[in-house]
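[recover] target loaded
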């Protein structure tokens, strides 16, 4: 490939920087873990939920882009202005709680997987990977954040595609997953799968990302394409992970307690190369998730309190320490990182319905968007998204309640 072609590829990737950012945020160890468990326990029967959640994900991202461009303000600022500080605080609460608990699971999973694979101490592994995330934030800025996530997303996408090539799930089994059903014991898993996509943090993050990219109303059509690209790619990657788990674990009746379990299962079937690729994918997914998890939490807190979102600001770096230190919770205090991650995703699903309501109202308020109100189609889709998020919030709550009874 000549220099000109490489430059064109680089320009193309950077033009879809926000899409890459959203992919990195959504396809992390949380989504990978929930997808692996879903595939292991239920085969492809929950693929329909993935398709619906990513369709609604695209609708919400496009609507958020329109609201941000038309108003010139972030979602937090608009919530404070039009619904009151209580609404803004609700959004802050939804993002900060879910992202901190998510980081406990995300960093715990990659640290546990790395420790199991290499034989190093779990705590030392956690300190190492938590420090990596912190350093990336400490020395970065938005343009650098985009480039870092492009690398992580490329690595995880390639590694999981190679794993699926080895697993080779039958097409008939894959397509059977588009028939809606929730198998027994699948409530919290389906809630977690949807929670990683239709999450408050994702909606809020979109507002910050397109604003920091410098896009305006003239970029709306490209922003809608960007949202569609992110939705399609996330669905493809997620379906690949689920299919790989279904083809390797479900057919053998194996359950997953740790993400590393899937890697070990691949060894006798496809050789150490596939298992190594899975570990690389898990680490890339974890870093691509912990990174924006931390960023969106700091952005949200800073925006709510009227502070700068400059990564070099003292408060920015201090809050980053707190969120990166979440990776030390599992090795210091115990608990299964995969289970903690699934629970955090289910919590995100519970917060979501009210945020869909906020966004839909703002997208139709003349004082916010002027003449750029949502179309009838978008409003109908937002209404369906609300009903879907409400149903999934109920599933997540049911799953969490059932889990609580076991303790």
């Amino acid at each position: 490939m000549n220099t000109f072609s490489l430059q064109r590829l680089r320009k193309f990737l950077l033009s879809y920087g926000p899409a890459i950012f959203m992919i990195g945020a959504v396809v992390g160890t949380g989504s990978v873990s929930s997808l692996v468990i879903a595939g292991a326990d239920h085969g492809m029967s929950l693929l329909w939920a993935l398709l619906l959640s990513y369709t609604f994900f695209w609708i919400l991202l496009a609507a958020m882009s329109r609201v941000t461009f038309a108003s010139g303000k972030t979602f937090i600022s608009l919530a404070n202005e039009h619904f009151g500080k209580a609404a803004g605080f609700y959004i802050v609460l939804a993002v900060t709680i879910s992202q901190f608990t998510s980081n406990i699971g995300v960093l715990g999973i990659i640290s546990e997987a790395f420790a199991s694979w290499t034989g190093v101490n779990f705590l030392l592994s956690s300190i190492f990977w938590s420090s990596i995330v912190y350093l990336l934030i400490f020395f970065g800025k938005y343009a650098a954040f985009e480039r870092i996530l492009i690398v992580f997303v490329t690595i995880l996408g390639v590694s999981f595609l190679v794993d699926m090539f080895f697993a080779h799930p039958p097409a008939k089994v894959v397509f059977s997953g588009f028939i809606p059903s929730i198998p027994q014991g699948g409530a919290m898993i389906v809630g977690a799968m949807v929670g990683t996509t239709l999450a408050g943090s994702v909606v809020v993050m979109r507002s910050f990302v397109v604003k920091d990219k410098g896009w305006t109303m003239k970029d709306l059509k490209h922003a809608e394409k960007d949202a569609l690209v992110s939705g399609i790619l996330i669905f493809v990657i997620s379906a690949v992970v689920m299919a790989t788990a279904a083809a390797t674990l479900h057919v053998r009746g194996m359950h997953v307690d740790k993400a590393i379990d899937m890697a070990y299962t691949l060894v006798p079937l496809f050789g150490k190369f596939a298992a190594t690729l899975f570990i690389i994918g898990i680490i890339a997914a974890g870093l691509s998730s912990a990174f924006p998890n931390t960023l969106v939490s700091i952005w949200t807190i800073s925006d709510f309190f009227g502070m700068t979102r400059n990564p070099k600001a003292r408060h920015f770096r201090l809050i980053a320490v707190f969120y990166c230190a979440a990776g030390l919770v599992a090795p210091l205090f115990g608990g299964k990182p995969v289970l903690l991650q699934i629970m955090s995703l289910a919590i995100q699903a519970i917060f979501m319905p009210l945020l869909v309501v906020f966004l839909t109202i703002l997208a139709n308020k003349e004082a916010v968007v002027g003449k750029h109100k949502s179309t009838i189609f978008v409003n109908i889709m937002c209404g369906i998204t609300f009903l879907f998020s409400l149903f999934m919030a109920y599933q997540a709550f049911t799953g969490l309640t059932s889990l609580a009874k076991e303790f």
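[recover] notes: DSSP finds 19 helices and no strands in the chain.
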